[in-house]
Amino acid sequence: MKAIKWLFQVYIFGSMHVGISVLALILMTNHVFKLPFNPVMAVFGFCGTMFSYNFMKYDGLFRVKKSAGKRVKFIVFLSTIALAAAGVSFFLLERATQITAVVFFALTALYTVPFFPNTRNLRNWSGIKIYIVALCWAGITLVMPLTEVHEAITSDVYLKFSQRFMLVIVLILIFEIIDLKEDDPHLKTIPQQIGVHRTKLLNLFFIAVFFFLEFLRIHIDYKQMAGNFVMVITTALFTLYATPQRSKYYTLFWVESIPIFWLGIVMLASSL
């Protein structure tokens, strides 16, 4: 049991779970726009996310002290492999996709690293964190797969980008509710500014907008809408039951599972 618990913690705190969530959204893009599965894009999305998140979470990722625990050292080892895999897959992508990836990598770097003396990174700028993360997720999971196959930019692409951006905002707000007691007041997160109750109402509003935007598609897929409806109800319940007293696993495992669950339920609905 101890070994299973240790592996589960490595899976969660080593950002493999969030990597699979990003991969699920990439596969969702493939499904919606009827794109073929691209293993290079899948590897880049999963490994790039895993490395980036670990780089943000573990200060001095490749300068870990000898006194660091076995779990952290193993995560560093896995992150090194992820970086190598993401690097190789990057050079196998189309040039336009590479440029798109560099743009979002630059945003991630600004989010993580202070480039100028006596300045803070974007992560610490009041209120901006949520939008940077949502923009990066939407870009990596939607823009990059479409760019890789030279997909034309239609109104559906803008629509799906808006939905994807909004979904990530919703998931982050649940995180911010859970982290309310621990977050630095200077971060000025939305729950810090308007309170938990109003944040939940805002989240429910975003979820409703996300769902009804589907009606604006050029060709409405009602099976997709059925899957969306189940995901929206599930996300709404996670929002309503979110409190600062919840365990970290409420978000780190369950809430981050929502994109995976969404992909599964949409694929199931499409097969019926």
From TrEMBL:
Membrane-spanning ranges = 7-29, 35-53, 74-93, 99-116, 128-146, 161-180, 201-220, 226-242, 249-269
| UniProt keywords, alphabetically | Membrane, Transmembrane, Transmembrane helix
For the keyword Nucleotide-binding, the answer is no
Protein name (record): Prenyltransferase
The species this protein belongs to is Flavobacterium rivuli WB 3.3-2 = DSM 21788
